[in-house]
Structures are given as C-alpha cells and as structure tokens.
Amino acid sequence: MARSDNRSGALFSEAQQVIPGGVNSPVRAFKGVGGKPVFFQSALGAYVKDVDGNELIDYVGSWGPMILGHNHPDVVAAVREQALKGLSFGAPTALETELALKVRQLFPSMELLRMVNSGTEATMSAIRLARGFTGRDRIVKFEGCYHGHSDSLLVKAGSGALTLGVPSSPGVPEALAENTITLTFNDLDSVEETFREAGSEIACIIVEPVAGNMNCIPPVPGFLQGLRRICDEHEALLIFDEVMTGFRVALGGAQAHYDIKPDLTTLGKIIGGGLPVGAFGGRRDVMKHLAPLGPVYQAGTLSGNPLAMAAGLATLNNIVQPGFHDDLTDKAEQLLKGIRHQADLAGIPLRTVQAGGMFGLFFTEQETVERFDQVMACDSELYGRFFHAMLDEGIYLAPSAFEAGFISAAHGDQEIEQTVAAAGRAFQSLLNQ
Ligand code: PMP
C-alpha cells in the first residue's frame, strides 16, 4: 500500500536547514530504521495524523506519556482552564502540592518529592542528591539503560545513544565518566563483585526496574531484590528510574509491581500527561539535603509549571480508576498474542515481552532476551523492514529496535485487530522482499 509522504519529506528538508538533523531529539530522525521521519499534525485517541493526511495507529504515544490516548478530553479541559488563569508564575501554586500528594499516594516511598521539567532533570538531580547525601562520587548504572542525557549518565547508554551508536558520548569529560561504573542488567554477580571492591566509594545504583531503552527487558527474579540488599549492605542509595515504568507497569510503578522500596525514585512522561514534567523524590532524610532545606542545589524557572501540573493531575485522576491497568495489560497481551501468531504463520522468529502497558518485539531465535548482549544479537535490520511495512499499513511503531512500545487506554479491539491483521501482511511482505 503506497503511503503519501511528500509533505513530510518537504518539511524534513526544511527542518534540516535550521535544526541539527531536522529533529529536536535524535531517535525521531529514523536513523534506526532508515528512511525519513513522519511529521505529525494532530492526534486523537489511539491515532496520530501526519501532515500528508495519513491516519496512523500509534504505539509510541509520545514515548510513553499518552497513556490515556491522545488529547483526552479531561486533560485538554484541565490545561485550557488553567491557561486562562496564567501560564507560569515562578511562585508556588496549590496545584503543585495537589500533584505531589497524588504522586506520594501512589508511590509511598516518595516521602518528599520535587517537580522538574523532564526525565533528564529528574535523574540528574537524583544523582547529585545521592552524591551529596553519601559524600561519595561513584555511581553504578547498567549498560543499555538510559537515564536522560546528563553527563554522568551518558555512559554506555541506551535509547537514541544506542540507536545512533554513540552510547558513550563525546563531550562528556573523562574525569566524570570515570565515576560511572557500568554493569550488565540482570547480572547480580557483577554488582556483588563491584561493591566488594569499591562499595565504600559508590553513592548509588540507578536502574530502570524494567529496562525500556534497549527494547523491553524485565528484571530476572531476584535481580531488583539483590540490588536492594547490596545497597543496604554498603550504605549506597538505590534509585529506581521510573520515568518510563511509573504509572505504566502498574499504577504504583515497578516498585509496587515487584514490591521493592527504593531510596529515591525518578518520574517523567505520564506524570505530565504530555506536557514537560519530571519529578524526583524519596526518603525524607535524603530529600532534606536538597536546597532550600539543605546544601544540595537544584532549581527550575518553570518547575511545577501550572499547565503541566494540571495536565498531570487530570491524567493521574483518570488512571486511578479501578481496573485501568488490568485493562491496559489485557490489551497489550491481546496485541502481542496476535502479532506472535502472525509471525508464526509467516515462519518469522519473533519473541515478545510485556510489562503492563509496555512491550518489546525481538526478531530473534534466542530462547530468552534478558541481557544487553542478547538484545544486540537480535535482528535490528529486520525490525527496520517490519517497521516500514507496518508504517505503510498505517501503524506507527517505535522507529528503532531499541525502544519499547506503548499501548494506551484508547486502543480498542478494533485498533488491535487492525494492527494484528496489518502485522500479518507486513510479515508476508518481508518474506517476499
Ligand atoms: N529515564 C528513562 C528511563 C527514560 O526512558 C527517559 C526518556 N525516554 C529519561 C530518563 C529521560 O527523560 P526525558 O527524555 O524526559 O529527559
């Protein structure tokens, strides 16, 4: 099926004249799948509409925030109502406390929390706080996990850094990168060993409790529990980066789902309902080290922005409805079951992974995909061809084999059936290429 893309192509050429690579965030450039990015003009529910008039069923959902679907009426109404009262004050508002209380109710480990403007700011601030609190400089992260683009965390990173083949970025001073120890996700032995050697120098472990930036990899049983124990033994802080998993894997995030209490948590995406918001928080004694209570500095002109708070609150007020996450999980299951079935029919080896409302597609014959090297052994070129075949069918998947997929409450049976049927035709077209 031919999809028109003339207008997208023209806009991309124009954008490249003024924006590096034509995009404001690298994965959008389609480097991971080849071809030219699709420019969007509007969205509603499970659908996005591109500038050439194509309607696409969307499994990216702005990379996670649109858990209610696009332009949910409650969210739009809340933003509109607030916009009439003021766009930004740089002074406290009741909305900030209301959202903070709501978040704490869902994430009780976040005894105190602070709003920021992105996931990057949340993780960067949490790392600084962990260092300030412990008086230690070194941090542990896992290869293929992505925690935003701050210097300390851009070492062997996932997401766009991985897609573009620059997991450790030029521009990050060696002296800083040396303080980031990168280990293998789901390999507890390497964590034990590292802490045996250098435990007293390590401020924290930061981890995506379900890794969503090297495709989608849940923790193996005992991994997160082991991290908790090791941090306790060495008086290091455990930071769960729930920017992606928060409110998505379960209402209370991965920490509720796996029943682990981190010292600090970072949030983003859903908490802003599509507007730029992040948050970090955790143990009261740790958070009290933050300015103005303590010496660790962190600030933001637009932090707690009223429009963003209003959008976040309207989103959270919707997803707390009973059964919301069960439904979301069922939908993702239904989708993956259908896609697997179609792959089987075509004889294409495909593994799928699911954690609540997020999922991963791995083109591989490997029995399991639990570690970074196993992700890298999957056929990302085949994913790229599948991506384009699906795009031609009107289905918008993540434009990289290293990103998780997201489903929303607005995806109904019809959209899922349509997607599964499209996958069947897409798989067949791969065989014919
Ligand atoms: N942490 C995780 C787990 C993420 O997935 C992301 C972004 N995908 C970030 C941090 C950074 O968030 P942002 O892009 O809002 O800066």
TrEMBL record:
It is an enzyme of class 5 (isomerase). Keywords: Cytoplasm, Isomerase, Porphyrin biosynthesis, Pyridoxal phosphate. Its cofactor is pyridoxal 5'-phosphate. GO terms for molecular function: glutamate-1-semialdehyde 2,1-aminomutase activity. Gene3D superfamilies: Aspartate Aminotransferase, domain 1, Type I PLP-dependent aspartate aminotransferase-like (Major domain). It comes from the Bacteria. CDD domains: OAT_like (cd00610). InterPro entries: 4pyrrol_synth_GluAld_NH2Trfase (IPR004639), Aminotrans_3 (IPR005814), Aminotrans_3_PPA_site (IPR049704), PyrdxlP-dep_Trfase (IPR015424), PyrdxlP-dep_Trfase_major (IPR015421), PyrdxlP-dep_Trfase_small (IPR015422). It holds the Pfam family Aminotran_3. It catalyses: (S)-4-amino-5-oxopentanoate = 5-aminolevulinate. It is found in: Cytoplasm. The modification N6-(pyridoxal phosphate)lysine is found at residue 269. The keyword Oxidoreductase does not apply. Belongs to the class-III pyridoxal-phosphate-dependent aminotransferase family. HemL subfamily. This is Glutamate-1-semialdehyde 2,1-aminomutase. The gene is hemL.
